[in-house]
Amino acid sequence: MTPDLLQPEEEDPGWFRSPLQDSCSTAVAQTLSRKHVLLPGPRGPRGLFVVPTAAEVRGEGRPVLVEKAQLVLVLVPPPLRWVRVQVAAVNHSRAQGAVQLSRSEPIRPGPTRSKVLIRKMSGTEGDPVQSGWFCFDPGLSFTSTGSKEVTSFEFVVLLRPSGFRTFPGLAVEVKNEPILGFEAGSPERAELQKALDGLKGRTEEVPCVVGDELVWTKDVRYQLSPFNHSHKVAKFCYADKELIDKAIQASLAARREWDLKPVQDRAQILFKAADVISGPKRAEILAKTMIGQVGDPWRSGDPSGVPVTYDLPLAGVQGKTVVQAEIDAAAELIDFFRFNAKHAVELEAQQPISTKESTNTALYRGLEGFVAAVAPFNFTAIGGNLAGTPALMGNVVLWKPSDTAVSASYAVYRVLRECGLPPNIIQFLPADGPVFGDAVTSSPHLAGINFTGSVPTFKRLWKQVAQNIDIYRTFPRLAGECGGKNFHFVHSSADVRSVVLGTIRSAFEYGGQKCSACSRMYVPDSSWPQIREQLLDIHKDIRVGDPVEDFSTFFSAVIDDKVNLVNLLRLHISSVANLSLWLRPLQSFARIKRWLDHAKSSSNLSIIAGGNCDNSKGYFVEPTIIVTKDPQDPIMNEEIFGPVLTVYVYPEKNYAEVLRLVDNTSPYALTGSVFAHDQKVIDEAARVLRNAAGNYYVNDKSTGSVVAQQPFGGARASGTNDKPGGPHYVLRWTSPRVVKQTHVPLTEWKYPYMG
Fold this sequence. Notes:
Elements: E1 7-8, E2 16-17, E3 27-31, E4 36-39, E5 46-52, E6 57-58, E7 64-67, E8 70-76, E9 81-89, H1 94-99, E10 116-120, E11 131-136, E12 147-150, E13 157-159, E14 164-168, H2 187-199, E15 204-206, E16 208-210, E17 213-215, E18 220-225, E19 228-237, H3 241-260, H4 263-278, H5 282-292, E20 314-315, H6 322-347, E21 358-365, E22 370-374, H7 380-392, E23 396-400, H8 406-418, E24 426-428, H9 433-441, E25 446-452, H10 455-467, E26 477-481, E27 486-490, H11 496-508, E28 518-524, H12 528-539, H13 566-569, H14 588-601, E29 605-609, E30 613-614, E31 620-621, E32 624-628, E33 644-650, H15 655-665, E34 668-669, E35 671-675, H16 679-688, E36 695-698, E37 715-716, E38 735-742
Parallel strand pairs: 15-19, 18-20, 22-23, 22-25, 23-24, 25-26, 27-28, 27-35, 28-33, 32-33, 35-36
Antiparallel strand pairs: 1-2, 3-8, 4-7, 5-8, 5-14, 6-7, 9-10, 9-11, 10-12, 11-13, 16-17, 18-19, 21-38, 29-32, 30-31, 34-37
């Protein structure tokens, strides 16, 4: 490669950028003494990378970074395709091109050779020095012997010598974001402490945002700290119907241009945002998640379903401990952005089969309309994903953040805008639940709802969509995650210590306010004495308090002061089928207290640890362990969303019967764990509990799913199980189009059988 193709980067003389052209005959192959080569990622055409097997390739949406500096990149403009080939003969210089691949251009016709003879391969590797890739026009074919002479400069044969690996040019290799430790004296702890100090006593102003316009309405609210009611974390306002309608129209006007933008360009924004959150904005977003996140007037940030009447325009929040904030607002959010961007880019490489007569191409369009993203209270990452993924796939989005996560959500929104997200692609709209829900479901342009929240609210939205089905231009996509009543099933062969430690973390970390938190536990009578003793021993050391002032806090105050009443009423009446969803909610703190009161008054339940609560300064609830005699008690089948664990001790010999009980007790099917070392029991449990959990663990706790490792979601009452964090999630937010282009004209209308 000639030196003028390499230009030093201004910001780092150790990096180079190569200005490749979108031509199949353009290739770069170079061994450098420098540490890195930085190559622009393809902007539409598919290509091929050839790198040393041991090389680390990191494509973070930015140009592809290749360490060890040996790389070949060939870009392929449509409609050309790649086919694996084996070189049969190359006039005078086969060895030159093959052996010296890392220092020369790929073999192709040139001054010293008039043609290249190749043979199409049939699934075998062949000689690693002679096997390679051939860039060809689908309309051209090989000879009957499987060979082809290449005489045109428009075609490239790229050989892969031994010791090199090959992967598609649009493949992006990313890894999960490392979780920082925040040990005393560490740089990350110092940065976080500085950010936390900057938020103390400060009230952030958070507007509605439509396009580039910051909008304040008269309906002003305040976000409070749950562990200190006197601290107003943020001042924000509700969007009214008029503003929501304005946002819809502005979004629709921007939709077409955004949808036509190459997915690589859209992915670039999320990759850049992930880098920014990983670096300069990490401490700020963590601090806002710790001091001012979560807890919602809708229990889970629901947009509608149970109207709220406020005595004061206040919404409490839930502070997270440093480790919970790091897992959520840093690692998981970054992973969502990076892996979804990777999956979106790679999706375009999934193309239908073409023939010599025609070329078939799949185009992954955004949905025709807008998507409403309704975020929950308990995870900053989920809010960013609910809005960010549809936008990544070419959609325009109305993002309703949770009232009690509004500060952290706004910080994420601003990062996206600063990283290149155009105005009107995501509208930031804090809003009253019913107002937002009614506005979006009554619009004929609704194309989808991306939701995390309660079952009653999701059902109400679904019913509203059904009632309005005749007005829509397209059938709206509904994706929902609605919580769970998650289980730990313990067999007598289980490791007791592992059971205890996993259950403590799953049930009480973050105050049990995870959709995946363990809320019911089934323990054999032979193991219960040991498990009970160890649970109580650890329980004594659990610290509940202010996670900002005391980093040794295990969890903080519970959500806020408002939640759906329906589940409480199920304690006192036989059926709620005829209840209106327009019931006034009770306080979340009061809701958990009612469950504790139920445990204290029921002859079937015994509290063996905790059971107390105090809301004089914050919404604090002790971690509580309850033992039930009745495995069908309401406390075993209704979601509590608090630090309450109920244990049913079963006769060891009845484990098979209890497995069926685990499957049938609750309407939810989100997460669950089986602890056992008897493989026959593990296999039997997997069969019986096949539909009991969308995320199923063996000898591990029911919480802690990691993006791309355990894509998350469940069915039944837990939601639509679309698995955010998995490779197929991005497809949910596309409307694929297939284009067939025929190269051979039709010459006859009759079919052969017609004579």
